[in-house]
Amino acid sequence: MIKYKMKLSKEQEAILNGSKGEVMAKVMETMIRYGELFGADRMVPITSEYNHLVTSFGLKALGPVYDLMEKLIDAGCVSSQKFTADPRPLDRNVPSSFIQNIVFNHFMYSKQDFYEDQLGKLGLLERDAFTCTCYMDEVGNAPKPGDILSWSESSAVVYANSVLGARCNRNSGIIDLMGSVVGYVPYFGLLTDEGRRADWIIEIKTTEKPEAQLLGSAVGMKVMEDVPYIVGLDKWLGELDEDARTYLKDFGAATASNGAVGLYHVEGITPEAVQQKKALLKENPNVYVIDDAELKRVYDSYPVIWKNKEAKPKLCFMGCPHMSLNQLVNWTEKVERGLKEAGNEKVVIPTVFTAAPAVLKKFEETPYAARLKKTGVILSYICPLMYMNNPLSTSMPVITSSNKLRTYTSARYYTDEEILEQITR
Q: Which GO molecular function entries does the Swiss-Prot or TrEMBL record give (predicted)?
């Protein structure tokens, strides 16, 4: 009998000692070891309807992952929940050279079809359930307030915790699946009431609505893995409507990638801040004031790692994390207006808007889809980050308004307004 410091229920002990087979026992042991590393004293059941996995790409180098997946499948240890997964890495609609495609298809993601077949056997929600914004209404994987999750994907976790009021730690790939297979996760960190209290007060004192990705970057780099309580942003967001949720999607992704934020509270907006107000604050919290000058300082601090810093952009990616339906609609109008003012009919830089397959399907049902197509903008379900991992993509001058993409790749960050000017003029 295996003994651990963690207090286990009779069912958990039985699983650990082989009641559901050797493979399931190893899965339970993995989750216990993971929890004890972070001081967890018990395991709690997952309560969400669906899970979300970060590992969606069939990299040739991930042989041990495929072997592990096969062992789970052969033992019947599939996910106790259906799950969504992060975006696919490839899409023929996205511009790429002949040599880039050889690298993508033969040296990088050659196991994509094989891996997607494994995901299907393990519990993938549906064939097109690949997106980093699984919580969109069109996708259907939005947990309820208080739900315990076993998700990974930093931008999805921070959104679920902050905007939806669910409870999830920043899990890694494979751990997300393990929790869902066994049905339990260790109780620590952002699952606990104390772990959800704020270490920082962030005071927003800008003269106009701050750029979501830029503000998120500033917050993430300052607080790192701590929990921030943001005051003054409700002035610009108003209420938690579709526009505010889209803003917080992009803001949260930047806090999670430029720092390691897994939860933030926005006074008067996010559910726990509305319910508990400043009772969420820990004693003597740190204070960080963000004004126009601070945002400019953060923006100016970003390195440009292009070989030729004056190079003309060859590609623009929008949608990391994936764009919402209202973003697609709003950006259609922005691009049309920008082109009209510039006297151009189509975008002057190849531009890709990425969104969840289900969101793209809904968008195609609107008159905006045909209008956007006329501008030359390409729609895709791809993960821009996976595209940029190609060494031949890294050497390209690519622009984006995503601070996540800027952080993890060679893409160069510009604000939305600057992006619009570049692609239309």
A: lyase activity
Nearest-5° Cα angle at 157, 264 to 253 = 65
Tens of pLDDT, residue by residue over 77-115, are 999 999 999 999 999 999 999 999 999 999 999 999 999
Other C-beta atoms closer than 10 Å to the C-beta of 130 total: 28
Q: What is the pLDDT of residues 208-262, one digit of tens each?
A: 999 999 999 999 999 999 999 999 999 999 999 999 999 999 999 999 999 999 9
DSSP string, 117-169: HHHHHHTBSSTT-B-S-TTSTTT---PPTT-B---B-HHHHHHHHHTS--B--
Q: Per DSSP, what are the bridge partners of residue 289?
A: 203
| Residues 277, 15: Cα–Cα separation, whole Å | 41
- Per-residue pLDDT for 2 more than 90? no
Tokens of 364: 């195609």
Q: Are strands 228-231 and 198-204 parallel, antiparallel or unpaired?
A: parallel
- Backbone region of residue 331 per phi and psi (left: phi > 0; alpha: psi in -120 to 50; beta: other values): alpha
In the chain, CATH 3.30.499.10 covers 315-424
- pLDDT above 60: residue 70: yes
What fold characterizes domain 10-191? Aconitase; domain 3 (3.30.499)
Fold entry, domain 315-424: Aconitase; domain 3 (3.30.499)
The rounded distance, in Å, linking the Cα atoms of 414 and 419 is 6
pTM attached to this predicted model: 0.96
1 has a pLDDT exceeding 70: no
Q: Quick one: pLDDT at residue 127?
A: 86
For residue 176, give the 3-state DSSP assignment. Answer: helix
**Structural contact between residues 109 and 59, judged by C-beta atoms closer than 8 angstroms:** yes
Phi, psi of 292 (to 5 degrees): -60, -40
Q: Is 99 left (phi over 0), alpha (psi -120 to 50) or beta?
A: alpha
E strand segments, 154-213: 184-186, 198-204
